[in-house]
């Protein structure tokens, strides 16, 4: 049950479920968060006169993991310290202060990324084939290319995110591995992971599905539901992948946690070990979020992917049950309300594709126009910045709604600075 409350009566620990004004007019991304500090109250008092608090629901986030035992190796100690510090930071306030700032613009970074994407694509296919044949994996090559991807994401994550929109249903496993790596690196940057931690996370994300090479193709690509036997074989890709990575020299144990835990779920309902809450670990939680997001927003043999905007809404609905609620909220902030590649309709009547984010004003991305208000194609490639673009009567231009991919025959990739040959 919710109850109206004057903002002067707010206290730490209360759960705010609704505001007295549209959320887009405030710095709060969601109408639903627990007040964790006096700063939260001050921020609410700046924007609202009253709010609605939940009186029957308890919003709980498990405490962060205790620091690892001093007898563990230094690598694990460092990783646990990052987990502890980040979860404290995530749980203490709904908004994070950015650690990284863009060093390049999209146009500058895209030319660097074009070659990185080409090399990564070739490497991933080689890694998957080696895993299928039981050969040693090229860990050194994987580390090198992930390091280059991490450097690019630190400079500006939008370029690689554009390339993550390249999707072919018949190449799902390989391209999914690349996209999950890109998403994990972008999310890690948003969370403020240190460079070495980004490299380890990205490596684990790139190799998280390596065990699928030990699952028959007819099961991986089955167009209908799996029976119990087939589902058991599908789930076996997790321990098979962990076994392959354990046997590969040079793969950090923390990277392997992405493969081990990316199907574990916050409530304990996942597989293989049924881990619950913070037992999953930070890298496992991140892996689960980005893996699920890409899976539900991509076309596969047995379903058509939903829009990125719809996928983020689903992820938010699944918080607490499937995913750490604070991490889900941060992932949505990382991707933006209108992720790159989203087809959007503006209040001018024009329709376009989001091509780059505004990390300060998230409702004001840059958009490449595709259709005029009369639904005729926009001549040439016209990209507008919603920070400055105006309607015909001089009003600020805003996004009215998000459309499903493919509407009006629009292929979002055609409006991004990438080529399918890359």
Describe this entry's structure for a reader.
- The protein is α+β, with helices and mostly antiparallel strands.
- The chain has 3 domains: 2-54, no CATH class; 106-335, Hypothetical protein af1432 (Orthogonal Bundle); 343-415, no CATH class.
- It is built from 14 helices and 9 strands.
- The chain has a 5-stranded antiparallel β-sheet with strand order 8-7-6-5-9.
- Helix 4 (139-155) crosses helix 6 (172-191), helix 6 crosses helix 14 and helix 7 crosses helix 11.
- The protein is globular and about 65 Å long.
In CATH terms, the superfamily of the largest domain is Hypothetical protein af1432
Overall mean confidence score, pLDDT: 85
Straight-line distance between termini:
53 Å
Which of globular, elongated, flat, extended, rod-shaped describes the shape? globular
Q: Report the CATH topology name of the largest domain.
A: Hypothetical protein af1432
> Uncertain segments of ≥5 residues (pLDDT<50)?
56-73
Radius of gyration: 22 Å
Structural class: alpha+beta
Number of strands: 9
What's the architecture of the largest domain, going by CATH? Answer: Orthogonal Bundle
Helix count? 14
**Order of the strands making up the biggest sheet:** 8-7-6-5-9
Instruction: Give the DSSP E fraction (strand runs of 2 or more residues).
Output: 5-15%
**Helix proportion of residues, in percent?**
40-55%
Question: What top-tier CATH class of the largest domain fits best?
Answer: Mainly Alpha
Largest sheet: 5 strands, antiparallel
Order of helices and strands: EEEHEHHHHHHHHHHHHHEEEEE
Q: In total, how many domains does the architecture comprise?
A: 3
């Amino acid at each position: 049950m919710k109850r109206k409350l004057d903002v002067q009566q707010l206290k730490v620990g209360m759960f705010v479920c609704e505001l007295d004004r549209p959320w887009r007019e405030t710095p709060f991304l969601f109408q639903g968060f627990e007040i964790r500090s006096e700063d939260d109250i001050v921020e609410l008092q700046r924007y609202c006169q009253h709010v609605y608090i939940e009186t029957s629901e308890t919003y709980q986030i498990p405490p962060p993991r205790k620091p690892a035992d001093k007898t563990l190796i230094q690598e694990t100690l460092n990783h646990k310290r990052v987990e502890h510090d980040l979860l404290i930071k995530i749980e203490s306030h709904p908004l994070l202060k950015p650690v990284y700032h863009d060093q390049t613009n999209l146009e500058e970074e895209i030319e660097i990324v074009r070659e990185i994407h080409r090399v990564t694509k070739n490497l991933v296919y080689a890694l998957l084939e080696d895993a299928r044949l039981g050969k040693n994996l090229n860990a050194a090559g994987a580390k090198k290319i992930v390091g280059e991807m991490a450097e690019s994401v630190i400079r500006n994550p939008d370029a690689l995110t554009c390339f993550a929109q390249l999707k072919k249903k018949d190449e799902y496993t390989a391209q999914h591995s690349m996209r999950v790596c890109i998403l994990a690196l972008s999310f890690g940057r948003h969370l403020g992971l240190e460079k070495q931690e980004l490299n380890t996370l990205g490596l684990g994300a790139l190799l998280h599905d390596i065990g699928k090479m030990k699952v028959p193709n007819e099961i991986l690509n089955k167009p209908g539901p799996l029976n119990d036997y087939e589902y058991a074989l599908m789930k076996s890709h997790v321990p098979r992948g962990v076994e392959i990575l354990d046997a590969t020299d040079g793969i950090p144990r923390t990277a392997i946690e992405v493969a081990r835990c990316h199907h574990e779920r916050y409530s304990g309902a996942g597989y293989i070990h049924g881990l619950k809450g913070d037992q999953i670990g930070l890298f496992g939680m991140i892996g689960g979020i980005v893996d699920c997001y890409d899976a539900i927003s991509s076309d596969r043999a047995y379903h058509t992917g939903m829009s990125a905007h719809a996928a983020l809404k689903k992820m938010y609905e699944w918080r607490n049950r499937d995913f750490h609620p604070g991490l889900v909220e941060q992932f949505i902030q990382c991707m933006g309300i209108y992720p790159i590649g989203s087809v959007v309709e503006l209040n001018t009547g024009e329709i376009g594709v989001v091509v780059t984010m505004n990390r300060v004003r998230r409702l004001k991305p840059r958009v490449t126009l595709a259709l005029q208000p009369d639904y005729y194609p926009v001549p040439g490639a016209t990209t507008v910045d919603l920070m400055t673009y105006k309607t015909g009567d001089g009003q600020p231009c805003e996004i009215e709604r998000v459309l499903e991919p493919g509407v009006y025959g629009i292929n979002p990739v055609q409006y991004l600075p990438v080529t399918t040959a890359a």
